Amino acid sequence: MILHQPMKIFFMFLSQSKAMNVAAKKWGLKIGASQVVAGKNIESAIARVNELNKQGLTCTLDHLGEFVDSKEEALEATEYCIKTLDSIASSGVDCNLSLKMTQLGLDISEEFCLENMRRIVGTAKQYNNFVRIDMEDYSHCQQTLDILKELRKDYDNVGTVIQAYLKRAKEDIKNLKGTSLRLVKGAYKESHEVAFQDKSKIDENYFNIIKAHLLSGSYTAIASHDHQIIEKVITFVKENQIENSQFEFQMLYGFRTDLQQELVKKGYTMRVYVPFGQDWFGYFMRRMAERPQNVAFALRGLLSK
C-alpha cells in the first residue's frame, strides 16, 4: 500500500519548503517528529546511540540539513560533521557518519564540496570510522558519484547510496563493484523518464541490485523496513553461502523496532540510521510521503503528548 499520489506530492512539496522549515524550528519536535529524530544536538544523539548500542544495534548518525546556499553555512556544516566524528570517537559508541553533500556546498561548487568532504573523510579515517554519502534527488546523482570516485582514490572508508527506483541503478551497481553501498528503494519524487513509477518494478529492481552487489563480493547495506525483502535476502545469502560479515540490514530510527530486535537475535548486523539536528522538517516530511503508516505513526505520537 502506498500513499495516494496527491498526498505524496503534498508531503514532498512541504519537505522542500524553506518557510515551513523555518516555522518548524519554532515548533520544536512537537508534531510527532521526536519519535523519528534523536534530538537537536550531538549530546542527545550520542546518548540515544549509546542506548541503541546496548540493545545490540549499531548506528549511523546524520546531522540533518541540506541545500545550503552560502560557503559560510557549508563550512559550518563541515565543522559540525567533524565535531560529530570527534564525539563518536570520544564517547566510544559504535556508530558511523551519514551526510548530505548539498549541506556541504555541492550546489555552490563541486570542488568546494570535495574539499569539505576530504576533511570529513580524512578525519573519519584517523578514527577508523566510515562515512556514508546519502543520495539525494536525481539532479545530484551523477555529481555525487563523481565526488565519490575522487574520494576513493585516496580513501577506502567512504561509500554512498543507490536508489532502486532509478533506471540507472543497475549500471551504477556494476560500476561501483567493491564499494560499500547502502541500497534503498528511493524517497524522492522523480519523473518517469529517469525513475520507475510502478511499485512492483521498483521492488523487483531493488532485489536485483541487492543480489548483484552481494554476488560481486561487495559490502552491502540493505536499507528496508519491508519484511518480505528482508526474508528474501536472508534466503538468498544462505543459498549462496554469503557470510554475514559481507552485509548488514539498516532501518530508520523509530521504525520497526520489533523487527530490528528480531534481526539482532538472529545474529545479523542491524544498523539504525539516527537523524538529529535543528533542520529536521524536510526529513520528517519525506518519511510521511513514503508510507501511509508513517502518517498514522506521527499522529499517534502527537496525540500522546
From TrEMBL:
Annotated Proline dehydrogenase domain residues: 46-297
Pathway connected to this protein: Amino-acid degradation; L-proline degradation into L-glutamate; L-glutamate from L-proline: step 1/2
UniProt-listed Enzyme Commission number(s): 1.5.5.2
Catalysed reaction, written as an equation: L-proline + a quinone = (S)-1-pyrroline-5-carboxylate + a quinol + H(+)
Source superkingdom: Bacteria
Pfam (any one): Pro_dh
Alphabetical UniProt keywords: FAD, Flavoprotein, Nucleotide-binding, Oxidoreductase, Proline metabolism
UniProt cofactor(s): FAD
Annotated InterPro entries: FAD-linked_oxidoreductase-like, PRODH_bac_arc, Proline_DH_dom, Proline_oxidase
Coiled-coil region(s): none
Annotated protein name in UniProt: proline dehydrogenase
